[in-house]
Amino acid sequence: MTSEESYGPVPLHKDRTTVLGYPRADLLTVLIGMPILGLLLGIALPPLARWLSDLPVLPWRDGITFVGSLDRPWQTAIAAGLGLVAGLLIAATDFDETLKLTLTDRELTADLHEKKRTIERARVSAVFLDGKELVVLDESSREFTRGVHKTAAAPLSKALRSHGYPWHDTDPHAALFHRWIPGAPGLPAEAHAVLAARKVALKSKAEEDVRDLAETMQGLGYVVRDEGKDQYWRPLAGEADGHQ
Fold first, then answer.
1. What's the whole-model pTM score?
2. Where are the alpha helices (DSSP H) in 4-152?
3. Which structural domain, as residue segments, surrounds residue 179?
4. Which is more confident, 126 or 62?
5. What is residue 80's predicted lDDT score, i.e. its pLDDT?
6. Within this chain, do residues 111 and 134 fall inside the same structural domain, yes or no?
7. Which of 17, 101, 137, 166 has the fewest CB atoms within 10 Å, i.e. is most exposed?
8. Which residues contact 234 (CB under 8 A, 6 or more apart)?
9. Which residues pair with 162 in a beta bridge?
């Protein structure tokens, strides 16, 4: 079930609307291609396992030998079905983890992880790409949303600018970020504790915990981003002077 969180009142009239979701070509590739690929892999696995089982040195030999023994038609059908289901799950996960935007001249709605959030255009201070992720900042420079977006930069910026949103080619606050060093001055102990917990979540790939802890940091007055294995932080706008 989709939940909604509103950042500002809903307009009383409908504006021109632009939907920036999964590009149609990519959507067809994922929704059709991944299940077909999974189906084919399911069919190909037993013969491949039988071929691998002849190798003199083979890790997980017992498991591979078992897969290679699935040579009956009904077993092949089950393997193909499991591959198809796996492909569908991968496609659904990829779609769910892709940020979708709905734009009007009055407001922007972000749809990510089955959660919709809306912010008035007047409250948006910057929109930019950070690698493959699209970032929308509110008036305090807080990250209103951040997520992987499939639309290329040129049509994305054109669509946003056509509705009056402040597109930036780079993060306008990039110079304020500091690499997190445990216990280093500049952050309160509570923020250090949150970043330490987030480091553990990143290492264990607990994506929901990673996102929740980033939100916790914003509640403390800091934005956090990742570069490789390192976490970087910056104060929210208006609080930056105290961290110079």
1. 0.70
2. 24-28, 34-52, 61-68, 73-96
3. 174-243
4. 126
5. 73
6. yes
7. 17
8. 173, 176, 177, 178, 222, 223, 240, 243
9. none
